[in-house]
User: What shape does this take?
Amino acid sequence: MSTLAAQLALVPRIDVASADQAAEELDGFVQGHARGSIYHLNGWRRLAAVLFGHEAFCLMARKETGELTGILPLVRLKSRLFGNYMVSMPYVNYGGALADDPRVEETLMCAAAELAGLKGCSHVEFRDTFPRGPEWALRTDKVAMVLALPETGRALWSAIGGKCRAQVRRPMREGADVLHGGRELLTEFYAVFARNMRDLGTPVYPRRFFAQVMDMMGEAASISVVRLGGRPVAAALLLRDRLRMEVPWASSLRASNALGTNMLLYWSLLERAVEAGCTEFDFGRSSVGSGTWRFKKQWGAEERQLYWHYWLAPGQSVPALNPANPRYGLAVAFWKRLPLPFANLLGPHIVKSLP
Assistant: This one.
């Protein structure tokens, strides 16, 4: 049997499901797969469709018997500012094709490229955690920073070293305290997060984005807030995925950074992950050598290479839609000077079309 024939025998049919179709079947497949992540679950595509109005799909590979053998979630982002393209998955660090056989995953990616071509897209971005074949364009400028966790908080406290311990103690001496909870802390989280994003020159997600994430994830989502003088000065939204705790969104106010409130926040997050029985803590993605990379490295986090693969339409090159791109330098500088209410009002209309 030829290679093509063998591949077609593995995947005789690929269905395209919308954000509201086959949710139970898709989620069951993800939860039963060793590499399945929370971002492969149907709720994340539905969030993009309902909240931001994007087209959201899931390609589903099936055997002749109808058995589901692989999936590939996709969201199409389309705007005048940033173009027309697809991502698996936008707004988060992970996504990509998911199957037991790599040939099925490749077939799903080819189907995504065909769908993108029909939609007039410039490219498809697959946020993978391992390398694929040379036929796919590739970016490797991002790494996930992951810390293997010990079994006890005491062992963790010892492992972080004296310098980190001293930085954690300082805000405690200044009277800072940490609160852990759920949606009742969302207002404080968003106040810190939105101000920090404005200060960085980055458009912010709407508050309802985080509210829907909290609702969708249930007990797997939580919020931690550091207060100083009764005011929130640092905050994070945590997501648990099996034995991994991840912090996709965290911020601290610049005025409080000198006191180490950000260090107290992250110590409390790590401590919570240990108490929850997690075996690793995912600090999120960074560029090697950047300030955020150094911050995460001091906790003992190790680099885990991220492989972002691309299908590119004819004449297209690998995109660089990020604030570090000199092309957006003036826009970033302008955004930093916006009054916070205007930044919070305008930001969601822009950021929804950024990956």
The chain has two domains: 3-140+307-331, 143-304. The CA atoms of residues 131 and 307 lie 6 Å apart.
